[in-house]
Design goal:
With 233 residues, the chain is α/β, with parallel strands linked by helices. Helices cover 36% and strands 18% of the residues. It has an 8-stranded parallel β-sheet with strand order 1-8-7-6-5-4-3-2. Helix 6 packs across helix 8. Bound molecules: 5-O-phosphono-D-xylulose.
């Protein structure tokens, strides 16, 4: 069972003060989540390899990049070269997603694939044995501050079952609307990595906010193990 971890999403940070924002939350976390958007795959535009390179120079934290772009084959290796530790892409934009997973491994990256709320797990079935991370989006990708979609919870449990069936090792990350109020159910269902943007950066005390998300996730996992109220049905 993977250790639980919170990945603050810098999408909700002050982009003019990114290094300070990351340093601010660093005492409470081991990683940060970096959303790369191209205004084509999603209707928003954020940052690219130069900003990842600056972040790499500014922090030793694990950089978990999520590419919401239509051309990951071109840009994912650049994001790795800029210093990302893990790169997650959306497989439906790729002709050969398994080939891209292997290419990213060859350049030394951990690799994730993402599924949007309406997409079935079958979309990534053939990749599950080769990836480090399955990102289950709990909102439509593109913007921070959206409401968590609880209808995604069964897909997390399905991913856990597929992992057991395949003898795979991938982590399960959730992203979108994650807060101390919503994270417990995702942990109970089997998620182990929790991206939280506004639930961390909209608070003055970011380490306390990140720890509150982690504590609620740990409670959710514990209650599920005990057959308690957050247990996934
Ligand atoms: O990928 C995305 C949005 O597409 C996220 O990583 C957001 O940054 C999450 O923000 P919150 O919902 O936690 O505010």
């Amino acid at each position: 069972m993977h250790e639980l971890r919170v990945a603050p999403s810098i999408l909700s940070a002050d982009f003019a003060r990114l290094a300070d924002e990351v340093a601010d939350v660093a005492p409470a976390v081991s990683m940060v989540h970096v959303d790369v958007m191209d205004a084509h795959y999603v209707p928003n535009l954020t940052l690219g390899p130069p900003v990842v390179r600056s972040l790499r120079a500014a922090t030793p934290l694990f950089l978990d990049a999520h590419l919401m772009i239509t051309d990951p084959r071109t840009y994912a290796p650049q994001v790795v070269a800029a210093g990302a530790d893990s790169v997650t892409f959306h497989p439906e934009v790729e002709d050969d997603p398994l080939g891209l997973v292997e290419l990213l491994r060859d350049v030394g990256s951990q690799v994730g694939v993402a599924v949007r709320p309406h997409q079935p797990l079958s979309l990534v079935e053939e990749l599950l044995e080769s990836i480090d991370l399955l990102l289950v989006m709990t909102v439509q990708p593109g913007f921070g501050g959206q409401a968590f979609q609880p209808e995604v919870l069964p897909k997390i449990a399905e991913a856990v079952a597929a992992r057991e069936r395949l003898g795979a090792r991938f982590r399960i990350e959730v992203d979108g609307g994650i807060s101390p109020d919503t994270v417990g159910g995702t942990a109970a269902a089997g998620a182990d990595t929790f991206v939280a943007g506004s639930a961390v950066f909209d608070h003055l005390d970011r380490p306390a906010a990140a720890r509150a998300v982690l504590a609620a996730a740990e409670a959710g996992r514990r209650e599920a193990a005990d057959g308690g109220p957050s247990a996934a049905g």
